[in-house]
Each structure stands twice: as C-alpha cells, then as structure tokens.
Design a protein that fits this description.
The chain has 226 residues and is α/β, with parallel strands linked by helices. The protein has one domain (4-222): P-loop containing nucleotide triphosphate hydrolases (Rossmann fold), CATH 3.40.50.300. The protein has helices spanning 48-55, 78-88, 104-109, 121-128, 144-156, 174-189, and strands spanning 4-17, 20-33, 37-41, 63-68, 71-72, 89-92, 162-166, 193-197, 209-214, 217-222. A 6-stranded mixed beta sheet has the order 6-7-8-3-9-10. The chain has a 4-stranded antiparallel beta sheet with strand order 2-1-4-5, with helices on one face. Helix 4 (121-128) packs across helix 5 and helix 5 packs parallel to helix 6 (174-189). The longest helix has 16 residues, at 174-189. It is globular, with a radius of gyration of 17 Å. It starts with a strand and ends with a strand. The mean pLDDT is 91. Bound molecules: adenosine-5'-triphosphate and magnesium ion (MG). Residues 48-49, 166 line the site of magnesium ion.
C-alpha cells in the first residue's frame, strides 16, 4: 500500500462549454506523504485550485484516480466524500470563509459541529497559532493575517492527515506570513501531509519538495529527495 496520504494518478479535468472543450489537467500524477510539505506553483489559470479541489474531494476528475490513505476515493458517493473530507482533510482557502456571526473560537469549532464539538481543542489551536487572546473576537474584529490563522486552526480541528492550502500567505505581510508558514511547518513536522498552492516563492524556504503545474501536468522543480 502507498505511503501517500493523498494521491492523484492520471488525473484529467476537462470543462465543456457549448462547442468548446477546455482541458485544464491533462494527466496529473501527484502525491503527498505524511510529514511532507509540497508546494505547487504555476501561472494564474493553470489549474492549481482545480487540482487542490480534486485532491480534497471537493471536485471530481474527468478521468483518473484519487486516493486517500491509499484507498481509492474516486467513486465515493456524495455522502462518503463528505465523511472522508471531515475525517482526513483540512482546507485553508484563500478567502478564509469564516462565518461573520461566529467568534474565532466558534469558527474553529464549525467542522466538529456534527460530532458534538471539539471539547476545548478550538481554544488550544487558537493558542497554538498565537490567537489565545482573540478567541472571542468576530472575524471583522481581526486582521487579515489573524483571519488566516483562524482558518488554519479550523483546518486542523479534526486532526486531518492532509492539509490543503490555497495561497496560505496571499495578502499577508512578511511578518504574518512568516508566522503562518512557521505554523504550517510545525503541523507538517507533527506528521500531517501539506500541499500548498501558491505564487509566493517564499514557501519554498519551508517546503520539502516543489512542483510546477505546466500545461496540465505536474513537473518536479525543486528539492529532489529520492
Ligand atoms: N467551472 C468551470 N468551467 C469552465 N472552466 C473553468 C471552470 N472552473 C475553472 N475553469 C478554468 O480552469 C482553469 C484553471 O482554473 P484554476 O482556478 O484551477 O486556476 P489556478 O491555477 O488556481 O489560477 P489562480 O492562480 O489564478 O488561482 C482556468 O483557466 C479557468 O478559467
Ligand atoms: Mg487558484
């Protein structure tokens, strides 16, 4: 069985609109192991978010296979996908998607709502990301970087095996982005597989491996380890 916590094999993604067909991913082979931090780079519109969404079971490939923890997750039902996401995957989206009417702590607890709350883990995680003194703040009482850290805490509340981050340092200043990246590196060193899609070269200072999405395929660019 594969040691990969999340994996794509021969993934093709095509969009059809009327007569036109757009191939965004044309045969992606990619995987991440526990404790490994991989960056995915490439120009705007090349398919990075699409790839991340397929890896996180938020979108389905046209062709190919998606595996989570070595198990085929390509043909799960909608219900099974939701369960698998909740159990194994943490997401950090570029736009945070915090709920404005909930405090920082309540936002972090959202993914545990179906299983009866996190029993104080939300508060602990907020302390870990340096927001112990902001647990009762609402999103509009937080800075951009603080919101990003709340989103990061929320992505970890269910102890995922893999963390998928879309531009985790988008719009952050240097200091805040350093602290978010330190945090992601720490999470990764605790055994979580991390895939970060980004335009920010800075992430490669923290990653174990860097790939580039180029004409619909993944090519390795940095830190060859094998
Ligand atoms: N539902 C859709 N229907 C048709 N085309 C789509 C759809 N969703 C995305 N696309 C196209 O797929 C391509 C890849 O989009 P994607 O969001 O994955 O790019 P990206 O690499 O994340 O870009 P960015 O760096 O700007 O975030 C784009 O050219 C986009 O226009
Ligand atoms: Mg994108």
């Amino acid at each position: 069985m594969s040691r990969k916590v999340a994996e794509l094999e021969g993934v093709v993604k095509r969009y059809e609109s009327g007569e036109d067909e757009l191939t965004v991913l044309s045969g992606v082979d990619f995987g991440v192991e526990r404790g490994e931090f991989v960056t995915v780079m490439g120009p705007s519109g090349c398919g990075k978010t699409t790839m991340l969404n397929i890896l996180g079971l938020l979108d389905e490939p046209t062709e190919g296979t998606v595996r989570l923890d070595g198990k085929d997750a390509t043909d799960l039902t909608e219900k099974e996908r939701t369960l698998a996401r909740r159990e194994s995957i943490g997401f950090v989206f570029q736009d945070f998607y915090l709920i404005p009417t909930l405090t920082a702590e309540e936002n972090v607890d959202v993914p545990t709502a179906f299983s009866g709350g996190s029993g104080g883990r939300a508060r602990e995680l907020l302390e870990t990301v340096g927001l112990g003194d902001r647990v009762d703040h609402y999103p509009d009482e937080l800075s951009g970087g603080q919101k990003q850290r709340v989103a990061l805490a929320r992505s970890l509340v269910n102890s995922p095996g893999v963390l998928l981050a879309d531009e985790p340092t988008g719009n952050l200043d240097k200091e805040t982005s350093d602290s978010v990246l330190d945090e992601i590196r720490r999470i990764c060193d605790d055994g979580v597989g991390v895939v970060a899609v980004t335009h920010d070269e800075k992430l490669t200072e923290y990653s174990d491996r860097d790939v580039r999405l180029d004409e619909g395929e993944v090519r390795r660019t940095g830190k060859v380890t094998e």
